[in-house]
Design goal:
By secondary structure, this protein is α/β, with parallel strands linked by helices. 34% of the residues lie in helices and 15% in strands. Strand 3, helix 3 and strand 4 form a beta-alpha-beta unit. It is globular.
């Protein structure tokens, strides 16, 4: 972990897919996170306990030596209620786009959900993210789900035009060699 900040890393996400099914492993995870936290330098340490309902462990997760939690809100409504009722002293990533199936969400519906959550959640940072990694979805579906998140962000912030990516400098096209 040493040197990650010098290499440009802003954060490390620890994915822990079994914790919510095996809550007895929490002390072992806490020990591991303490070691990581002590060696992370200026890099933010995030925990993502995916593939389950985080509501039963939410209070305990808040006490772990991490800077942020990523919570899957598509798995159960209880997780959202736990986050709303308890708030968070940690930064939060709210998994509002379902990464477990190819069904596409409505940006308008997700914007309404996100707006309601953001207004009611007390946390230092709130980010909108997929509910899990997108690696098992077909590429086109995964890209579209990320575009839905961008659309939600734009609707929440009032940005009317989506960003188009990096601007090209005037000059020769790398592929064709033409201007």
């Amino acid at each position: 972990m040493e040197g990650l900040a010098r290499a440009g890393a802003a954060g490390i996400v620890v994915e822990e897919p079994s914790l919510l099914r095996e809550p007895g492993a929490l002390p072992v995870l806490e020990d591991a996170l303490e070691v990581m936290a002590a060696r992370r330098e200026a890099v933010r340490l995030w925990l993502f306990p995916g593939f389950g309902d985080a509501a039963p462990l939410y209070e305990q997760l808040q006490k772990l030596p991490v800077d942020g939690l990523i919570i899957d809100l598509t798995y159960s409504s209880a997780a959202a209620e736990a986050v709303i009722s308890s708030g968070s002293s940690l930064a939060l990533g709210l998994g509002i786009v379902d990464a477990r199936n190819t069904r596409m969400e409505s940006p308008a519906k997700l914007t309404k959900l996100a707006s309601g959550l953001i207004r009611r959640i007390h946390a230092p940072i709130v980010m909108l993210v997929p509910s899990n990694g997108l690696e098992f979805l077909p590429r086109a579906v995964a890209v579209h789900k990320l575009q839905v998140l961008v659309r939600v962000r734009n609707l929440l912030t009032g940005v009317s035009k989506p960003r188009t990516g990096r601007r090209r400098r005037a000059g020769k096209n790398r592929r064709t060699g033409r201007r």
